[in-house]
Amino acid sequence: MPVFEQISVLVVDDEPIIRAGLSAILDSQTDLTVVGTANDGEEAVEACARLRPDVLLMDIRMPRRDGLWALTELGRRALLGPGRSRVLMLTTFDLDEYVDDALAAGASGFLLKNSAYEELTGAVRAAAAGHSALSPAVTQRIIAGHLSGRRQPSDQALARLRDLTERELDVLRLVRDGLSNAEIAARLVVSLHTVKTHVSRVLTKTGCQSRAQAAVLARNTLS
C-alpha cells in the first residue's frame, strides 16, 4: 500500500452547507484531511493558531470578521508562510474587488466556489506545496492587470526589492507573468534546482509568504 503524505485543511465558511460540502470533498481524498472548520474570520484565526493546518480553505466574504481580515491577522501573528499555514481564498465572484488585496496580504491562491472538484483539490495540494493556486478566471485578470489597474509603487514596496540581484529580478518578473519553475528554467536556460533557489531567495528577501504575493508585488513595482 502506498503511503500518502497527509495535508491538513481548515475549512472556513459562514454557510454550514458549504462547509459540509467542502469538507466531504476534501476528506474523500486519500492525502487530504479536514482537521477543523470555522464560520468566520475570527474563529479561523483562533483555529489556525490551535490546529496549525497546512492549508486554510477560506471564504473571503463572511459576516463579522471576513476572510481578508483573517488573512491580515494571520500574517500579523506570523502564522502564514513556509513551514506554517497557507491560505486558499474562495469567492463566488470572479471579479471580486478583494482579490488583489488578498494576494498582496499573503494568500496562496484564489478559487471560485463553482470550481470543479479536481480544480479544488488540486489547488489545495498546490497551496500546501508552496505554489500559487489561482483559478483560470482569476489568473487571466491578474496577468492582464484588469483587477484594479496598476498601482503606483510605494517607497516601502520598492524597498523590498532593494536586495535582489538582477537575476533574481528576472525570476520575479517571470513569477509575475505566471510561469512555473520549469518554464522559468527553460526561459533562462538554467536548471530547475537553480530556479527553486532563486525563488526561495526572492521570497526571503522581499518578505513574501507565497509566489502569489510576490507576483502582486512585482506587478505593482516592476516594469
From TrEMBL:
Pfam families, sorted? GerE (PF00196), Response_reg (PF00072)
Where's the Response regulatory domain? 8-128
Instruction: Show the SUPFAM superfamilies listed in the entry.
Output: C-terminal effector domain of the bipartite response regulators (SSF46894), CheY-like (SSF52172)
Sorted alphabetically, which SMART domains does this protein's record hold?
Answer: HTH_LUXR, REC
Keywords (alphabetical) are:
DNA-binding, Phosphoprotein, Transcription, Transcription regulation
**Gene Ontology terms: biological process:** phosphorelay signal transduction system; regulation of DNA-templated transcription
* Gene3D superfamilies (UniProt xref): 3.40.50.2300
MF terms (GO), sorted A to Z = DNA binding
Name assigned to this protein = Response regulator transcription factor
